[in-house]
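Quick log. Single chain, no ligands specified.
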Amino acid sequence: MITRWIAALLIAASGVAMADADSAARFKGTGKPDPVRITNVAVKPSGEAGAADVTFDLAWDWSWRAAWKVKPEQHGGKDTLKLENWDAAWVFVKFRKPGADGWKHAILSTDKAAHKAPTGAKLDLGSSDDPADGGAGGKRGIGAFVYRASNGHGANNWKGVSLRWLHGKNGLKDPKAVEIKVLAVEMVRVPQCAFWLGDGTSKDVVGTFSRGTGVKPFRITSEQAIGLGGEDAQNLGNRDSDGMFANTPDDFNRDQSRRLPASFPKGYAGFYCMKYEVTQQQYVDYLNLLSYRDQCRAMALNSRHNKGNMFGGRAKSKAGTPLDRKAQGNTIMIEVPGVTPPSTPLVVDRKTFVASASIEHPGTPARFKTSSPHVACNGNSQPQVAAYCAWAGLRPMTELEYEKTCRGPILPVANEYAWGTTEIDWDRYHHKGKAGVPWRVGAFTTPESDRGQAGASYWGILDLSGNVLETTVGVGLVVGRRFNGTHGEGGNAPWETKDTFGYRGGAFPGHHYEHSGGDLALRVADRFIACRANVIEAGVERWYPLGFRCVRTEP
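-> predicted structure:
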């Protein structure tokens, strides 16, 4: 959010390379970040028993693939780094049997050769983790990444992408007897490499990560276990939680050490991160494919909720009471009310006793809509975040991955924002008097915007500083440290949610803004509410500034 020549001066003064010769491919946009478009969906015979091919066309407007080198003096390690990244569409399939209450996730073949990408595109399969089988993985295909086959940037328009659907494993004999939907999420590859946690700041410290008990940044060089706190200079410190929200400090400091297991995703390994925060339209699409019961869980619905009701915001009343959040920027509402699942009484006379029960029948899901489809979805809860990630075959992002997603592998700049400098146009960020609501994702991109003007991270990911809070798995509580990076498989969330998540990246100004850390929280290293204990007990089931985005470990 600074001009190109100011950015150049800052880079020259700091000696830190903010971008590279290929950066324009990642930071330039269309000025209109439209969602992925999927058309011409069809189900065709595959020639394989119990399997069919789901074919479709796939297009989006802002895309790239780029390769570059980072010198040792730029990243602070040894040897020159050779990096490559691209954006991709994470594509998955849902289906519904006639009369069914809600949609199911389609199981894809794990044979990569069974899936087809058109000329100019590549396809990587994302498979299940299969924790019940010892974590071997690969038993079921969950979705696929589709991306550019060679370097370049511009629009994508691919015809005839094909995914092999194992409908027999979904319990279907005739795949054409069901409804099919193909969905896609724009994501960006963050490649495997070392990176820095913390930025070495000595000003307005807020639980900032550091090396041991000092102030210098800490370098992540593997996915091995890490010591937290204590006096050991090789451990990851946190400035003794100085400046963090008083109710939720970390449970480690220089006097109390903990252990971050090897299974916790630390960000060194490659992963894909959503290019934008989840939008209101994406959340509507999700809600409209749920069963009535799952809609009730996601939005606290009950029989009193009728057409036009809106939900969310900070919970101030009992669960189920409709809360108007239009003034808070979220316009998701009921377009057509749902119908509570009916039940039929059942009485069984066994002579010696009479048993009674009831048979429940499928309800009718509500249909939702929004008048702000491209605006970030706010007013979420921790269970909501987990449920969406699992439904899409993705997972939550850890707070270590958040810092890598922002700054990449290069040496950190004290008090930097996600676009790599300490400069910010406050008038522009505060949305010219429209404070108090989130804005359109990627709002600052234009056809000629550079990284600073677009507000892009090192990798080309947008809105990591500001707009809505990023939901991240925190390392400051034991329940968060139990997170092992497993992915959702289209159904229920496999992760704990209570006390698992914290928030990074700051939010829009407005009501409750001070509780998210204010303007300082936009900084990459700021950990004001990196932990969030006892959220449900505190009554904060849905929080006004809370948004999220999902990630997936690279196949």
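Residues 3 and 410 are 21 Å apart (CA to CA).
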